Amino acid sequence: MKIRHSAIVCCAAVSCAAFAADVTHERLVNAAKESGNWMTYSGSYRSWRYSGLDQISRQNASRLKVEWVYQMPTTLMVETTPLVIDGIMYLSEPPSNVVAIDAATGRQFWRYRRELPKPINVCCGQVNRGVAVLGGRVFVGTVDAHLVALDAKTGSVLWDVEVADRKTGHSITVAPLAVKDMIVCGISGGEYGIRGFLDAYDAATGKRRWRFWTIPQPGEPGGDSWPGDTWKTGGAPTWVTGSFDVGQNLIIWGTGNPSPDWNGDSRQGNNLYSDSAIALDADTGKLKWYFQFVPHDVHDWDATQVPVLVDAEWGGQPRKLIYWAHRGGFYYVLDRENGKFLFGTPFAKQTWAKGLDAAGHPIRLPNIDPSPEGTYVWPGVQGATNWYSPSYNPITKLFYLSVWENRSVYRKGEQEYSPGNRYIGSVPLIDLPEDPGHGAIRALNPHTGERVWDYRLHTKPWAGVLSTGGKVVFGGSDEGHFFALDADTGKEVWRQNLGGIIRANPITYLVDGRQLVSIAAGSALFTFSLGR
Amino acid sequence: MHKIAITLWALSLAAQQDARNPRATPEDIAAGAKTFRSHCAPCHGLNAEGGRGPNLAGGRLYHGSTDEDLIRNISEGIPGTEMPGAFYMEDRVRQIIAYIRSLRATAPPTGDPTRGSALFESTGCVRCHLAGGRGGRLGPDLTQIGRLRSQQHLRQSILEPGALVSPRYRVVSFKNPSGKQIQGFIMNEDTYTVQVIDLDEQLHSYARAALRDYKVEEVSTMPPYKETLTAEQVNDLVAYLSGLRPE
Fold first, then answer.
1. Which of A140, A224, B60, B168 has its CA 20 to 30 A from that of B109?
2. Three-state SS string across A230-247, please?
3. CB contact under 8 A, B191 and A413
């Protein structure tokens, strides 16, 4: 590790390009040891969104200053997590563009600009959450549902494959994950009645290695959880990057809502594997286990959160665990060897379940389903948390996340499926002007779910959190503030108004031996340091 | 008189219909109605009579009334208003348009807008509300209110202004860092600061931490006119406000 950091320190910005993105699977497996880089969407296969870097600490974070700003030529929402590898940043811009930037100066090496057909069917904005890098190539999913491999040194297209038909409501907004010699890529379209899946592609050729359908067809296990032909249009997309359990060779990924979202009449049953954690054999894509957070969801509470993989003692025994704060307002601990439920408790206000039973299934309260006249339920449609990343810090042993405390009016309407049209069942009142709720950055004890501290926000955050070896938690808000909190206490140690909505995840890395922190806000990427 | 007005209204509606809409069969209209009720009715009313969003059954569509205008407005939303895009394929949007065009026009306002305009001045509305480039700053700007709100909504706002107070017009009060009591409306706020217009129409921006006795009350500073105005006067005022829709 020291040798690699020395290489980075010695490399002038120009010469960095000489070994751009020489990323092997072994390097990705050991990404946590390369804290000078940020090599996958969540920083490592365990998805802690944690860095051991400690130059920026809670004691000196108040000195953070802007190092450089990169402006993106877009008016679309920026949800990207950049990757930084050996001094070069690979950044996706909405809708489906990619740029390579000198991480020391913010100056661009190349840009891939995708020409898009019309119309593009995305439920919630033409966004992109990031890229994957492997073997000198950069991989990006596009909103017209293609997966594209780019040369890491020039941005030239090496291959471009259609993952699914955009005209039937498929799109890609997820950051792919490089695993072994494959690129694992999810799909969006849960508001268009797609049949969800998770794919793996040969990184060299673009040929599909396997596809796991997140909705089984009749005759397959779980196929009886969908009546009639509803399995064909049942949703369960895979639009947030999952994790890779190296030891078990398991890809662990979250699935989204069943379609139509807010009217489940036509799809009576548990609707497997919607709203679930799924664990797939990385080589074959075969299902090893699943855990469904919300059987027969009618509130749009996707399980599209990042699975946080931690090895820790549980019940006095070393266990392979998953920490998962779900959109429906409950925090779970799962056994990742078999997907068994170990523990669960609310982490935010919820009014829909009395609790969880021994298997982790919700014990639903009466009168919580959407209705024609509208039903008030906590959490709201956007959930108690959502796609933005949580963080686990091995020093504080705390789990950090962005939380919403609000409710929505859930309405039920009629809807028939037609290809390429929205298939949602109604339009809920997502935000109530008279009762907008509030947000928070929250620290939980991951083994008890107890709240350790709260950093309250006036508005509800759409930004992920990053924690570091300097015991700092970085977070952002829709108000445009980027801030640093003491990881032990939640006390604010620094903040900066960036003047644009923050709906992205922060990262940290080293350039020339100095720790930098980057976050997208508005249509720009801001990078901070302690100065020279 | 009313019969003539309604006939003209209906003719105007018919003139706006685009005979080329390929999705205007009775089945299409029924499908459009179904989509409308589940996706548009929360704002525009179950029968498009208006509510938070404008009346669409009135025969007048103020952001463009050709099919192409409507496809754009429904698909992409209307900038500067609360109307979002609906993300439908064009055939589904055309069904919604066919449904909207099938609706019988609701009656135009029955009051006299000229008398309503005079009432707007004499009852003091103008002291707080801007209309036609003249008026106060403490109430909502009514310059284009006829485009944005239904007659029913306007009527209720006159008779019971406290029934629904938007967060922008809730009354905030606090002691500022100098100890002075401030009362007004929140124009913007975040976790750390608040921007206020006080009842003297002065702008202030404060750090929240510096304020004491901070309170927001869900009340309207507008008096109810239930007991003050006659039914005819309310009709006149509604007619005036409904006509505030500059091109």
1. B168
2. HHHHCECCCCCCCEEECC
3. no
Structural domain includes residue B36: yes
Residue count of chain B: 247
Domain that holds residue B209: 171-217
pLDDT bracket for residue B246 (50, 70, 90): confident
pLDDT for the residue numbered B105: 64
Q: Residue B19: its pLDDT value, please?
A: 56
Q: Are residues B208 and B237 in the same domain?
A: no
> What angle is formed at CA B3 by the lines to CA B151 and CA B244, rounded to 5 degrees?
30
The yes-or-no verdict on residue B80 having pLDDT over 90 is no
User: Which residues in chain B are closer than 8 Å to A495, comparing Cβ atoms?
Assistant: 192
Helical (H) or strand (E) element with A2: helix A2-10
Instruction: For B136-160, write each residue's pLDDT tens digit.
Output: 999 999 998 887 777 888 898 999 9
* Percentage of the residues of chain B whose pLDDT score is greater than 90: 47
Is B147 found in the same domain as B71? no
Residues 204-233, chain B: which have Cβ within 8 Å of A?
218
Chain B: give the shortest CA distance to residue A414, in Å: 6
Token pair in block for residue A181: 């010699």
The reply to whether B98 and B142 lie within a common domain is: no
CA atoms within 13 A on the CB side of A80: 34
B212-228 pLDDT, tens digit each:
999 999 899 999 998 89
Could you give the number of structural domains in chain B? 3
Predicted confidence band of residue B1 (pLDDT cuts 50, 70, 90): very low
> Rounded to an integer, what distance in angstroms lies between the CA atom of residue A105 and that of residue A56?
19
Are B243 and B235 contacting, i.e. CB atoms less than 8 angstroms apart? no
- Regions of chain A with pLDDT less than 70: 1-21
Contacts of A433 in chain B (CB under 8 A): 166-167
Chain B contact present for A123, CB below 8 A: yes
The interface predicted TM-score of the complex, written ipTM, equals: 0.82
Please tell me the distance from the alpha carbon of residue A304 to that of residue A306, in angstroms, as a whole number. 7
Asked whether residue B47 falls in the same domain as residue B85, the answer is yes
Question: In this structure, is residue B212 part of a structural domain?
Answer: yes
One domain, residues B155 and B50: no
A457 touches chain B (CB under 8 A): yes
pLDDT reading at B8 higher than 70: no
8 Å CB contact between A38 and A83? yes
Catalytic position from the list A144, A261, A300, A302: A300
